TrEMBL record:
GO molecular function: asparagine synthase (glutamine-hydrolyzing) activity; ATP binding
Active site, per annotation: C2
Family membership noted in the UniProt record: Belongs to the asparagine synthetase family.
InterPro entries, per the entry: Asn_synth_AEB, Asn_synthase, ASN_synthetase/amidase, AsnB_N, GATase_2_dom, Ntn_hydrolases_N, Rossmann-like_a/b/a_fold
Enzyme class label: ligase
Keywords: Amino-acid biosynthesis, Asparagine biosynthesis, ATP-binding, Glutamine amidotransferase, Ligase, Nucleotide-binding
E.C. designation(s): 6.3.5.4
Binding site for L-glutamine: D94
Any one Gene Ontology BP term: asparagine biosynthetic process
Name of the molecule in the record: asparagine synthase (glutamine-hydrolyzing)
Keyword Coiled coil among record annotations: no
Record organism: Polaribacter cellanae
């Protein structure tokens, strides 16, 4: 896990790339490297995970000195690919395997990679840049084109550090406030900065760029023509998951585990301990000392079974103000509230204990239809646990609301449930969680790996019939039946519980003054015309007085204030 940056174009000031790398040095504190020639500069922040020697530092150059690579992520099947390649390797790194794979197969190498990655390769002879992002967009790639230059990086702040003016993307912000959207896969909250969508590649030469899609998920799902019995599905999925875990334990540094009390992370830990010595896998969890929300009881029940060392991390309300300011700096965009702050403390503690890689259980609900709204025929709010709409359009000014456009998503499948799962996997739930978690883990220079998001697992699960996913309103049926022999019934058959904190109570009580001050900051800013402040202040007063079924809208306003504060100092 690292940070990448680069500029292609004329009259590049070398200091600008140093500023970019300095802004994201938390992504890779072990080494900073730069390669340059006329009209191109590549930079890299290294967090050493595989082959810790300096010979694996980046930018990395092939044996012919023609190709130069900057790479963020991990290629989990690099050992298998290495055996396929007829190449004189100088290192034991997955970085060199990636470059050799590109030399051998060109852009087709992408289909052979099992991993999380964003990378860029400069071809000296052709004067051409090739960049790509993994299937689900686990690793970030941001870019802009200004003044006949292509500028790219792992974080938005690096492009701003290059010198691009900080201008909010008003349409994305309007959609966020009106519909809870965090932008489409190619958008950001900042004007003139785009993302390369997951499963896409970019080519740039002669001041022109071309973006193409390389991963067609629905076509891969369609390849599963063979019909499996329920027992065959259980067996095949178990074997795929074991392989995914085995590959994600490839590391030259210690690996730990991010554990909640839910089925998904508990199931993953159970599988991990089938293959690894539980004494060597330290688990991390957070709690808030509020039994209405804490999952500590289920976590401790799970640890009682697996015997892993457990590190419990307490998040207190009086930490939220400073922590939210700190994490806003690393996020660059609105993030998911107080649970993200709790995650920040987990990664910070893991780093202190010299655990540089953590595994997480993200992605299972999208595969096996685990969210409660999958049971409903009509589309519903994708924020769980609230009865009323969490969005407060009436507090927005008419002019600002007019910018909002309700997001629509592709429906590549005939089945409505599959289309909901597809939406969550590529447009809403997973992209959002991956963004929050990449930035919050990298803030502490730690790497987060997602075994459930191995594309083999996701494609196979999507191809299975509905009755294997939901039966008698029991969701994630296959997973529950697989892990029932490892876990207690209270974990195996527990209903889905959204990961929660006392955010609703804290914002209206302990953090009331903090929120009020931040709302006043918005009112006094140039963004006050985004709102009808009489209505906003009345809504805030109603919330304080107990109309607080959802705190999402309060966190939205707070997010804007925090980002304003971060970017106007």
């Amino acid at each position: 896990m690292c940070g990448i940056a680069g500029v292609v174009g004329e009259n590049i000031q070398k200091e600008s790339i140093y500023k970019m790398l300095l802004s994201q040095t938390h992504r890779g504190p072990d080494d900073t490297g730069i390669w340059e020639e006329e009209n191109v500069v590549l930079g890299h922040n290294r967090l050493a995970i595989i082959d810790l020697r300096a010979t694996s530092n980046q930018p990395f150059t092939d044996n012919s000195n023609r190709y130069h690579l900057v790479f963020n992520g991990e290629i989990y099947n690099y050992l298998e690919l290495r055996n396929e390649l007829n190449y004189n390797f100088k290192t034991n790194s997955d970085t060199e395997v990636l470059l050799a794979a590109y030399l051998e197969w060109g852009k087709d190498c992408l289909h052979k990679l099992n991993g999380m990655f964003s990378f860029a390769i400069w071809d000296v002879k052709e004067e051409k840049l090739f960049a790509a992002r993994d299937r689900f967009g686990v690793k970030p790639f941001f870019y802009t084109q200004i003044d006949n230059k292509l500028i790219f990086s792992s974080e938005i702040k690096a492009i701003h550090a290059f010198g691009l003016q900080k201008t909010p993307n008003r349409k994305v912000w309007a959609n966020y406030f009106a519909f809870g959207s965090y932008g489409l896969p190619n958008e950001t909250f900042w004007e003139d900065i785009s993302q390369l969508s997951g499963g896409h590649y970019l080519e740039y030469s002669n001041k022109n760029s071309k973006i193409e899609k390389w991963y067609f998920f629905e076509k891969e799902v369609e390849k599963y023509q063979e019909k499996y019995t329920y027992e065959e599905v259980k067996s095949k999925y178990s074997n795929l998951l074991k392989q995914s875990i085995r590959w994600r334990f490839r590391s030259d540094v210690a690996v730990g585990f991010n554990l909640s009390g839910g089925l998904d992370s508990s199931a993953l830990l159970a599988f991990v301990n089938q293959q690894e010595n539980s004494e060597n896998i330290k688990a991390f969890t957070f709690y808030t000392d509020d039994k209405r929300y804490d999952e500590l009881a289920w976590v401790e029940e799970m640890i009682g079974i697996t015997k892993n060392p457990l590190v419990k991390i307490l998040l207190k309300s009086d930490e939220v103000e400073e922590l939210s300011k700190k994490i806003t700096h690393y996020q660059d965009e609105p993030f998911g509230g107080i649970p993200t702050l709790a995650y920040a403390k987990i990664f910070e503690q893991a780093r202190k204990e010299n655990i540089l890689v953590l595994l997480d259980g993200q992605g299972m609900d999208e595969q096996w239809a685990g969210y409660d709204y999958y049971l409903k025929k009509k589309d519903t709010n994708i924020i769980q646990g609230v009865n009323k709409s969490p969005f407060k359009k009436d507090v927005l000014s008419k002019e600002f609301l007019a910018l909002a456009e309700k997001p629509t998503y592709p429906k590549p499948f005939k089945d409505n449930l599959l289309n909901k799962q597809y939406r969550d996997l590529f447009y809403t739930k997973i992209p959002r969680a991956l963004r929050f978690n990449d930035r919050v883990s990298m803030a502490s220079s730690t790497e987060l790996r997602e075994p459930f998001l191995d594309y083999n697992l996701v494609e196979f699960a999507f191809a299975q019939p509905l009755e294997y996913k939901i039966k008698n309103e029991i969701q994630k049926k296959v997973l529950r039946d697989i892990v029932s022999e490892f876990l207690s019934d209270s974990i195996t058959y527990a209903p889905k519980r959204p990961l929660q904190t006392p955010q609703r109570e804290w914002l209206g009580n302990d953090l009331k003054d903090f929120v009020s001050i931040k709302l006043q900051k918005i009112k006094e800013s140039s963004f006050s015309n985004w709102f009808d402040f009489d209505k906003l202040e009345q809504e805030w007063q109603n919330y304080i007085e107990g109309d607080n079924d959802s705190s999402f809208h309060i966190w939205q306003w707070l997010s804007l204030a925090l980002i304003l504060n971060e970017n106007t100092n």
